[in-house]
Amino acid sequence: RKYFMKWIELMAEEQRAYVMRLLDALEVTDRDKRLKVARAILYLAQGVFDECDTEVDVLHWSRHNVFLLYDMGIFTALLELLSMEIDNSQACSSAVRKPAISLADSTELRVLLSIMYLMVETIRVQTEDDRPEWRSAREAFKNELGSPLYNGEPFALLLFTMVTKFCSMNAPHFPMKKVLLLLWKTILFTLGGFEELQEMKVRGRERLSLPPLPEDSIKVVRAMRAASPPASAMELIEQQQQQKRGRRSRRVPLVKQDSLDTYNERDPFKNDDARDEEEDPEDTDSGIEGEVDPLDRDVIIQPPPPPLKPPTERVNFPKGLPWAPKVREKDIEHFLETSRNKFIGFTLGNDTETLVGLPRPIHESVKTLKQHKYVSIAEVQIKREEELQQCPLTLGEEEVEETPTEMLYLGMLPNLSQYVIALLKLLLAAAPTSKAKTDSINILADVLPEEMPITVLQSMKLGIDVNRHKEIIVKAISALLLLLLKHFKLNHIYQFEIVSQHLVFANCIPLILKFFNQNIMSYISAKNSICVLDFPHCVVHEMPELTAESLEAGDSNQFCWRNLFSCINLLRILNKLTKWKHSRTMMLVVFKSAPILKRALKVKQAMMQLYVLKLLKIQTKYLGRQWRKSNMKTMSAIYQKVRHRLNDDWAYGNDIDARPWDFQAEECALRESIEKFNSRRYDRNKNGDFTPVDNCLQSVLGQRVELPEDFHYSYEMWLEREVFSQPIQWEGLLQNP
C-alpha cells in the first residue's frame, strides 16, 4: 500500500530510503533503466508537480527535495554519469556522422544536466526560512564545486571541456544551452555575484590599507534615472510639421528615478518627441528629463505632486553629480611635469611632493587633485609584481591564497585561449545579426525535434523556441564572461589582462559591435516566450488551446528582461576591454562604433545608458568637433552620468593624443608582462638561474646518485678511461690564473 502513497505524505525516513534505492539503481548497466531512474530523480527535483495544486507548492517541494538529493549524494553520482556520457565515443562518432541532429540524440545528457542545474540554482539562492542544516549544506556544496575535488579540477572545468569539445565538432550532440546555463550558475555560485564582488573589493582594499571606496557603485546605478534618447532626423521633421499645424504638447517632469520594479507597469521605451531638442531655458539647466505617460503618473510619483509652482522651481533634482571624481597617481605626475616644464624648465621625475618654484594656483590644483586621488587594487598589484620580478631572491616566494578564483584560473590557464574562442563562437552563432553559414556550429541540436513541424501553429511555436534558445545562450555567455573578467581582475590584474587579451585577439570587440548593429529596440522588446508553457505554470494549470493568434500576440510584458540583461553585460564587457587601453579605444573609432552606440541610447534604461555613455566618452575626442557639435545632448548626458577624471579633456580634445596607434606594440608589451607573471607564479621549473649551489664537499659526496643498473659491470673500464688515463696537472691549481 505504501507504494501508492504520495511523496508529500511520506515521512522523512521513507523519503530518504526511496532516494537511496534510486541512487543504487543509477549504477545499473542497462542504459534504458538508468535513464528511467534519472527521470524519476528529475521529477523529484522539479517538485513532484503531479501531487501539487499551486505553483508555490511545486517550488516548496522542489527546494525540499533538492536539499534531500544533495544530502544523499545524488550530485556526485550524476557527475560520474555525466563524465561517462562525455567520454562516450560511440555516441560522439554516431552524432558526427548524422546529417541532422535532434533532441533525441542528447536525451540522457539533457536529463542529467537539468537535475544538476536545478540543484545548483536551488541551493545557490538563499531564502529567509532556510533551515540551519540547509545553510551548512549550501556552504559545503559551494566549497565542493569550487575545489579541485572532481578529477583534480573544479566542476566548472568539466563544463568548459564540454564547450570546447562541442565547438571543435567532436561532440555536436551536446546540449549547449543547458551546459552554458549550468556553467554560468556554477561560476556565479562558487565565485559570487556582483554584491559579493563589492564586499570582496571592500575587504581587499582594507587588507592593502587603501582608503575606502568613495561610493557603492551598485547603489549609485540603481538610483540613476534614464535620460531621454537623442532625437532622430525623422522625429525632428515630424516635430516641425506638428509645430506648423499648431500642435503643442505639455511636458511632464520626472521627479523620481524609473525604478526597475515599475517597468512592468509602464513603457520605458516610448520614443520621445523631437521637442526634447528644443527645450525651454529652465529645462536645459535642469538636465535631461525622462518623460512619463500622464495616465501612469501615479505609478511613479508618490505622494501626488503638489500644486504647480513657477517654472524655475518645478523640478527638484538632487544636488551634485552621482559619482565622486577620481584622479590617478600618473595623472598628478603628468600635471606636475607639464607645470614644471612651463614655469621652471626642468622636471623631477615621479616626485609629486616638491612644489618649489611653482605659482600658487598650481599648489591649489595639486591639492585638489590629491584630495581625489584614487589608488586601485590593480595598481598595487602591478607595483608588487614589478618588485617581485626585480628582487626574486630578496623578497622570496609570494604567498598565494587558494581562493576559488585562483583555483579556477590555475585550471583554465593551459587551455584558456580555447575556452575563450569557443565561447565567442557560440556567441556569434546565437547573435540575432548572424547569418546562417554552412561552416558555422549548430547550436540548435537541443531544440529541434526529430520530426519537423507540418502545421503553421507548430512552425510558429518552433520559431519562438529557436529565438528563445538563442537569447538564453547569449544571456549565459555574456553573464559568464563578465563574471570571469570581474573576478579575475579582483584576484590579480594580470589574470584579467590575459583573458581580456584573448578576447580582443578573438575579435570580441567587432563581435559585440556587430551584435548592437541591429534594431536594438526591437531586440529589447522581443516576445519570444509562451507564458502558458513556462514552468511551473504549465504543470499546475489547465493548458489552454494554443492558436496562431495567441502565439503572435505574445505575453503582456512590454520588454524582455533577458535581452536587456544580455545587452548590459555585453556593454560592460566592451568597457572592461577598452578602459585605459589607447589602441583598443582606437579600434572602437576605426569600427565606427559611435552611431551604433548612439542608437542604443534609445533604450530608456539607466544602467544600459550609463555603459553606452562610458564607451562614447572614451572616444569623443577622436570623433571630431563636428560630431561633438551635433551631439550636444549626448555630451550633456555623459557629463551628467559618467564619472569625471579631473584633468581629462574628453569633451574638447584640443591636444588630441599624439601617440601613434601601434596596436601590436602595446599588446606585445602587455603580453610580456602577463607571461612574466604566469612564469613566476605558476611555472614549477622556474628560477633555474637562481637555484642555490651546494659548495660543501661532505654534503656533495654524501648525496645519493642514481646510477644505471649495469654501471657496476663497466665501472673499472670507466675508471681507466675517465680517471687513470687522463693526465692531471695538480701544480696548475697552485698557479695564479
TrEMBL record:
<feature type="compositionally biased region" description="Basic residues">
    <location>
        <begin position="244"/>
        <end position="253"/>
    </location>
</feature>
<feature type="compositionally biased region" description="Acidic residues">
    <location>
        <begin position="274"/>
        <end position="293"/>
    </location>
</feature>
<dbReference type="GO" id="GO:0007010">
    <property type="term" value="P:cytoskeleton organization"/>
</dbReference>
<protein>
    <recommendedName>
        <fullName>Striatin interacting protein 2</fullName>
    </recommendedName>
</protein>
<comment type="similarity">
    <text>Belongs to the STRIP family.</text>
</comment>
<feature type="compositionally biased region" description="Basic and acidic residues">
    <location>
        <begin position="263"/>
        <end position="273"/>
    </location>
</feature>
<dbReference type="InterPro" id="IPR012486">
    <property type="entry name" value="Far11/STRP_N"/>
</dbReference>
<dbReference type="GO" id="GO:0005829">
    <property type="term" value="C:cytosol"/>
</dbReference>
<dbReference type="InterPro" id="IPR040185">
    <property type="entry name" value="Far11/STRP"/>
</dbReference>
<feature type="compositionally biased region" description="Low complexity">
    <location>
        <begin position="229"/>
        <end position="243"/>
    </location>
</feature>
<dbReference type="Pfam" id="PF11882">
    <property type="entry name" value="DUF3402"/>
</dbReference>
<feature type="domain" description="Far11/STRP C-terminal">
    <location>
        <begin position="359"/>
        <end position="715"/>
    </location>
</feature>
<dbReference type="InterPro" id="IPR021819">
    <property type="entry name" value="Far11/STRP_C"/>
</dbReference>
<feature type="domain" description="Far11/STRP N-terminal">
    <location>
        <begin position="1"/>
        <end position="259"/>
    </location>
</feature>
<dbReference type="Pfam" id="PF07923">
    <property type="entry name" value="N1221"/>
</dbReference>
<feature type="region of interest" description="Disordered">
    <location>
        <begin position="229"/>
        <end position="297"/>
    </location>
</feature>
